[in-house]
Amino acid sequence: MDDAAILKRRGYIMGINLGEGSYAKVKSAYSERLKFNVAVKIIDRKKAPADFLEKFLPREIEILAMLNHHSIIKTYEIFETSDGKVYIVMELGVQGDLLEFIKTRGALQEDDARKKFHQLSSAIKYCHDLDVVHRDLKCENLLLDKDFNIKLSDFGFSKRCLRDDSGRVTLSKTFCGSAAYAAPEVLQGIPYQPKVYDIWSLGVILYIMVCGSMPYDDSNIKKMLRIQKEHRVNFPRSKHLTGECKDLIYRMLQPDVNRRPQIDEILSHCWVQPKAKGMSSAAINKEGESSQGTETSWTPEPNSDKKSATKLEPRKEAQPETKAEEETVLESRQLETPGVTSEPSTKETEEGPLPQPPETHT
Q1: Beta-strand (E) ranges in the chain?
Q2: Which among 136, 154, 198, 247 is annotated as catalytic?
Q3: Is 3 labeled as catalytic in the residue annotation?
Q4: pLDDT, tens digit, 9 for 90 and up, residues 33-45
Q5: Where is the Protein kinase domain (predicted)?
């Protein structure tokens, strides 16, 4: 029986194709029960790699079933057929994804960015409080509903955090995500704190929201890493960003994992709070540097308008240029359309690297 017939039996009238990869695709469908359109991710077990079937898919299904937050894409139903196809029926991001929105309309005004970023941060806090980490935060995975509210999607790389005997979250060794959004420790192949990794990606997303460009050029990973480790963040002067906004971005793009803020600190930052001042504007001078010291300063370069305006495109993944570069690869997602991209696959498992990583995609 084909997909349309299977979905029809479950009360869905299949619509257009939203995206397709080697072993998964996303279709739109009309739900006769819900009386509105949904997205259906269809995964073919017969075509999927073993590590996806054994690790990533069970994690995604488990996590999707437990999440219930207004800024996270809802999962309505998950079912599987006898021939090995898994159907995940989800909320449809009717206004597309944030990347396309910014590419079409340009950078957001700070008030709009604040609203959307607060929605996203609330979703991440909800996940982190449940010890769930996303590990693939990027603009393509932030869908927009009919009112242009943020809906976090694609939990294909997500996992439940493990804790040691003392209750501390253990480090992750599975290196995944998109290079342009990946924290320096991940690019270097260092075992990382998964919640802290999410925070770096949040910093990249907020930069894109308010600047309309990428904070770092990932066409040269080695050079990008050097700039990141020097804690340099260049802001386009033409955007006239407030010091509070630049301060928050700078804090999140902190290369020292022990100094990078947690999600509660981000939500309590003065810029995120529409009315609360938290830190007075006077504490941040006109150059955007905190009078508290170097922690909240950045290193602007001459003509930073040109140097920070990295072209905003869907980011493909690059191989980390570190001593572990032969062992870790950041994988690209094959479904880049609104809906849910799937096909998470890393070439480093938590038990050790797999041999012969694929070629770097450029």
Answers
A1: 12-20, 24-31, 36-44, 75-80, 85-91, 132-133, 142-144, 150-152, 159-160, 348-349, 352-353
A2: 136
A3: no
A4: 999 999 999 999 9
A5: 12-272
Cα–Cα nearest to 329, from 355, 348, 350: 348
Residue 84 CB coordination number (10 Å): 13
Alpha helices per DSSP H over 108-234: 110-129, 184-187, 194-211, 221-229
User: What residues contact residue 205 under an 8 Å CB cut-off, 6+ apart?
Assistant: 98, 117, 120, 137, 138, 139, 142, 181
Give the pLDDT confidence of 111-128 residue by residue, as tens digits.
999 999 999 999 999 999
Domains and CATH numbers, the chain: 3-93 (3.30.200.20), 98-308 (1.10.510.10)
* 8 A C-beta contact, residue 37 and residue 7: no
User: Are the C-beta atoms of 183 and 136 separated by less than 8 Å?
Assistant: no
What residues are designated binding site?
A: 41
Between 19-23, 36-40, 247-251, 356-360, the lowest mean confidence (pLDDT) is in 356-360
Alpha carbon distance 360, 362 (integer Å) = 6
What is the torsion angle, in degrees rounded to the nearest 10, for the CA atoms of residue 280, residue 281, residue 283 and residue 284?
Answer: 150
Rounded Cα distance between 352 and 43, Å, is 26
Q: How far apart are CA 278 and CA 270, in angstroms?
A: 5
Please give the annotated binding residues for ATP, written as ranges: 41
| Sole residue written with tokens 């479904």 | 335
